[in-house]
Amino acid sequence: xxxxxxxxxxxxxxxxxxARLPVQADAHQTLKRLEFEAGGACTTVLAGRNMxxxxxxxxxxxxxxxxRMLLDLLSAAAVDTSALxxxxxxxxxxxxxxxxxARGDHVFLGHYGVGADIGFTERAERVLASADAVFxxxxxxxxxxxxxxVDGVLDWLAAHESRLYFDVGPFARQLSLxxxxxxxxxxxxxxxxxxxxxxxxxxxxxxxxxxxxxxxYPTLTIALKLAQAGCRIITGADEMxxxxxxxxxxxTVGAGDAFAGAFIWADLQGYSPLECGTIANAxxxxxxxxxxxxxxxxxxxxxxxxxxxxxxxxxxxx
Length: 318
What we know:
Helix content: 25-40%
Shape: globular
Distance between the termini: 9 Å
Strand order of the largest sheet: 4-1-7-8-9-10-11-12
């Protein structure tokens, strides 16, 4: 049975420029690539959609050309955008993604969109009620115009049984401990990188800090993303390392977002934690083998091909 995911915020347009990093003043370059792409949580949305999830998006895009482009890209992937709020004269959150394909590095330069505040609507409530799970990226929690929507979603989650996946992200460092506690108390699965551990543990780092976090929130599953090394899954019953896949890295932009989409799909399909981590690793590995994210997120066939190539012994369900 097809599962439905509702995502909250972080709908971004990426302007992708393939450059030599680091960029320095007066060191002018001719770029090898220029693309406009769906970024941010759109990569999680599209990766999840490619795996087989039905996805609805909550939040906003701008009343501008970037917003119309995002709507077209998401609609083409059969993503439900009917609950988006698009205030007049608003703008779309935009990120300049400088990538260096020769080195596999990137840096993001972002600007949050501006416009009227986005509240929690009846349509948003209906979307949540029809979803099997909710995904919130950390970026969403610090976008000021989404505060009303986020508060409404968290209040709804506190009153209803629905799975919440929270991907920390680098901007979560801006959140207070009270704000984090509110989200973590509702979270079923926490996704983060090593660098992001201190943002949810009051400054402490390493696995010991995550284990202590798990003791504070005993129902929490933690998926620690380790890039090419794979991921580590911490649950109440076990702690396991899911090795990564040996691939040639072309572009790492969006790999963690794609990982999240595949992990959520696998978890909702009932795979074991070890299998969820392995499937998500295959999505991330397949992602970095190609340039670009968003609409270029790997398909389920791509993920299966990498699993087969590495003899993972997992057959993806239809």
